[in-house]
Amino acid sequence: MSSSSFEGKIHNFATKLSAFEFTPTNAPNTIIFVGGLGDGLLTVPYIPEVVSKLPANWSFCNPILTSSYNGWGTGSLKRDAEEIGQLVKYLRVNCHKKRIVVMGHSTGTQDVIQYLAKYLPSLTADAELFNIDGAILQAPASDREMFSRYVPPAKLEALISAVKTIVKENNGDENVLLPGKFSKLMFGTPTTAYRYLSLAVPYGDDDFFSNDLLDLPDDHPSSPAQTFGKVKIPLLMVPSELDECVPETIDQGERMEKWYGFMDDKLKSKYSGVVKGAKHFYGPGTKEGAKEDLANRVAGYLGEFF
Description:
By secondary structure, the protein is an alpha/beta fold. The protein has helices at residues 47-53, 77-93, 107-122, 143-150, 153-169, 193-200, 252-260, 290-305; strands spanning 8-14, 17-22, 29-34, 58-64, 99-105, 134-138, 235-238. It contains eight helices and seven strands. Strands 1-2-4-3-5-6-7 form a seven-stranded mixed sheet, sandwiched between helices. The chain starts with 7 loop residues before the first strand and ends with a helix.
């Protein structure tokens, strides 16, 4: 992202948690943007384009969660969802927002599914304050598939086995911080055994988008029927055509349609589709026009349903 500055408002929505809302901060509706592993404030290159295309009655809110930047290595989707819930409640109660859409990028898309399929159903009090009106999955990708693309299977299996041994040696404590040699697979980030296994092992807590999950019976806990099948609000899906985190053998458009097959047809956005020329992060190698295409799809989705 080139050097630039933006006007807006900082919200302290919980203890040690904040969010930046781009102008216009008085808009009645807002998008909450949740980035991927290593992301934080304004780290995703297409954010300015998306903000510039939003309808006048929508703002864009970029929170800093405990898992932002390098915090994800000791975190979980469960903690992320709880913190997103705190922001949703804050925006409804303190800022009187009428419509709230959560947009996830990369692993942020896993946070979106976690929020809809697991967090919201677990609430027993004041659930209406935590509900959201729509969701966007941008560059949904399986971390497990991504690791297998760059690490030989035998080496990856050896790493996973070693992590499981460390957990056993620590009396089953998955929160133990792994030795530094394990962080290479995790982009150099200090990582707990729990998050390592959650990201790398089949049916781990982070494993929502692996292609082989489509072959599971509907009653399997990791089946898309138990994740996408729980989504009851309008959903925009915008995979990236040149996504380096997705195996080249996978047809992303076809997989997207299969995910939609677990949902009510009325919740599918006509603006969904694979964004041509887009890399995973919309960084180097992304073709001209991809950012604008994504921004137009987001704006179109908002007009379509809200």
